[in-house]
Amino acid sequence: MSPIRSLAAILAAGGLALTAPALVQQAAAQAPAAPPAPPLIDWASIQIRTTNLGNNTYMLEGQGGNITVAVGSDAIIMIDGQFAPLSDKIKAAIRAISPLPIKYLVNTHHHSDHAGGIRAYAAEGIPIITHELQRRYYEQQIFKSPHTLNQDRLARAPKAPVFETVKDKRVLTDGTRTLELHLMRGNLHSEGLLMAYLPKEKILIQADAFAPRPGVPPLPAPSPYTVNLVENIDRLKLDVERVVHVHGGSDPIATVRAAAGRSPTE
Ligand SMILES: [Zn+2]
Ligand SMILES: [Zn+2]
Questions:
Q1: Quick one: 133 exposed, middle or buried, by C-beta within 10 A (0-12, 13-18, 19+)?
Q2: Which of 44, 156, 162, 228 has its CA 20 to 30 A from that of 184?
Q3: 220-228, long-range: CB within 8 Å, 24+ apart, which pairs?
C-alpha cells in the first residue's frame, strides 16, 4: 500500500484523527455542504474468520492483513492488528481461541491494514513489538495525534504505548514455543519490514512480500518483494515448510519459491 493510500485508509478506519482546526474551517467554508460520504468500508458487516493452522497457531481474517495468533503455555502472541473498528471483534475471536492474555502484538510494518488497530491494544497496555524504524512513525503519527474527532479508548483513557523494538532479530519463547522475528533486509515494500518464523512448526509469516493471485495470469517477472522474501529466507537459513501470507491464506514454501522465479531445486 502506498503511503498516501495508507493514510487514507487510516483515516477511513478512524485510526488517525486529523486534529487541525484548519480542516474544520476549510470544511465550514465550503458551501453548499456536500452530503456525508458513505463509509468506504461497512465495518459492521465484517466478520472475523478463524482458521486453525495446527500447532496452536491460528489465522484470523477480517479486513486488511490477516492476523496470526500463536498460543503459548501462558499467553498469546498476535501478529498484526488490522483496522481499529474491528478491534473488539478481533479480541472476541482471540478469546474464542484461548482465554490466555495477549502478551504481545507484533507489528510487521506501519501500513494501516496491518497497524490501523494498534491503539486499541496499547490502550490495554499490551506491548507492541515492531522494528525500530517503525516505532518512530507510530510515536510521531499514530500516538501523538490527539484523536479528538474520533475518540477511541486510548483517547478517552490516555496511556503511554509500550514499544519493544527489533533491529535484525528477536526471539520470543515461553519455554514450549519459540517465535523468531527477523528484519526483511532490503525489502522495498516498507522500511523495517518484519517477518515471523516458528522454527518448530516450520511456519513463516510474511506481510506484503507475496500475496497469491488466484485466477490472475502470472506476473511477467517475479515481484522484487517476493524475490527479496526468498533471499531473506535463504540468508537466514530458515527451514520453512509453510508460508502464511498476511494477505491470502497460506502456501507450501515451494509455491513461494516458484513465485520468486526459483526452480524446484533452487
Ligand atoms: Zn504494506
Ligand atoms: Zn498489507
A1: middle
A2: 162
A3: 221/261, 222/259, 222/260, 222/261, 223/259, 223/260, 224/188, 225/187, 225/188, 225/189, 226/256, 226/259, 226/260, 227/260, 227/261, 228/184, 228/186, 228/187, 228/188
Print the domain residue range for 115.
50-259
C-alpha 97 to ligand 2 mean position (Å): 24
Per-residue pLDDT for 27 more than 90?
A: no
pLDDT at position 34, please? Answer: 66
Q: 200: CA distance to ligand 1 center in Å?
A: 27
Cα 28 to averaged position of ligand 1 atoms, centre (Å): 34
Its pTM surpasses 0.85: no
* C-alpha 247 – ligand 1 centre gap (Å): 10
Nearest ligand to the CA atom of 191: 1
101 and 211 fall within a common domain: yes
Would you say residue 45 lies in a domain? no
